[in-house]
């Protein structure tokens, strides 16, 4: 079987809630040993803990020392590290004219510096093993950004270029590095599901598949990218957005105009 993570160790940043939590549960269900890294456990917003068997490690991805200690802890517990998912991220909104520079910086600290620090920490382990997978959360905002998303969109575009460079640097060690671009998954980060119906409808109208994305839609892709089946894919940005703006005005197909 190509997708079976028995004996492999998967580290997921921001694994305490949202998409990260779904990734933690999914990789565990696929027989991986999983370490979830996050600012606090249980998640302060939802208060729910992770299932038994998951290693929960407190880590601030913007802090080099915290990242080094977390990766050291993973290796101490499991003796190896095969897959790193750089999922932790924050959304920062505000027009360029009004955005506080401190908030701009926080977007780049978590979304870019965090990806850099965690990647840097796992490289020696993966090089020594002669294999590895690094998978980075970009966003559809790295492809087509929204108004008010200068900080978020620019930080996620930076993740894409970082991914390409790292893929080039790590190719000789059989380590693949890829990024993915989800579209719209209702989570604490965006509150899509709490918006008035008309606002939800306007957003859904941008999607060819016209439904909110589920965390498992991302988990399906990431299990593939982390598996042997994706061994020849590196330096890619994979769009997992349900066909957001795949065509102009995708909602026309739902209005019976597509023939
Ligand atoms: P979320 O807010 O529900 O979860 C983010 C997680 O990251 C939280 O558990 C949070 O505690 C953690 N985190 C934040 N700062 C951290 C830090 N400094 N150190 C360690 N952990 C930290 O968000 P989500 O919607 O699950 O998003 C997960 C990832 O997917 C993010 O990178 C986000 O940009 C990306 N993404 C989400 C969507 C979407 O529609 N939800 C779309 C595109 C991309």
**Order of neighbouring strands in the sheet with most strands:** 3-2-1-4-5-6-7
The structure class reads: alpha/beta
Shape: globular
Number of strands: 7
Largest sheet, in brief, is: 7 strands, parallel
Task: Give the rounded overall mean pLDDT.
Answer: 96
Radius of gyration: 18 Å
Query: What are the distinct ligands in this entry?
Result: nicotinamide-adenine-dinucleotide
Low-confidence stretches: none
Rounded to the nearest angstrom, the distance between the terminal CA atoms is: 41 Å
SSE sequence, one letter per element = EHEEHEHEHEHHE
Task: Tell me roughly what share of residues is in helical segments.
Answer: 25-40%
Beta-strand level of the residues, as a percent range? 5-15%
Counted by DSSP, the helix tally is 6
Outline the secondary-structure elements.
Blueprint: E1 9-13, H1 18-29, E2 33-38, E3 55-58, H2 64-78, E4 83-86, H3 101-129, E5 132-137, H4 150-170, E6 175-182, H5 197-204, H6 215-226, E7 237-240
Structure commentary:
It is built from 6 helices and 7 strands. It has helices spanning about 20-30, 65-80, 100-130, 150-170, 195-205, 215-225; strands spanning about 10-15, 35-40, 55-60, 85, 130-135, 175-180, 235-240. Helix 1 (about 20-30) crosses helix 6 and helix 3 (about 100-130) packs parallel to helix 4 (about 150-170). The radius of gyration is 18 Å and the shape is globular. The termini are far apart.
Question: Which features does this protein show?
Answer:
globular, 259 residues, binds nicotinamide-adenine-dinucleotide, alpha/beta
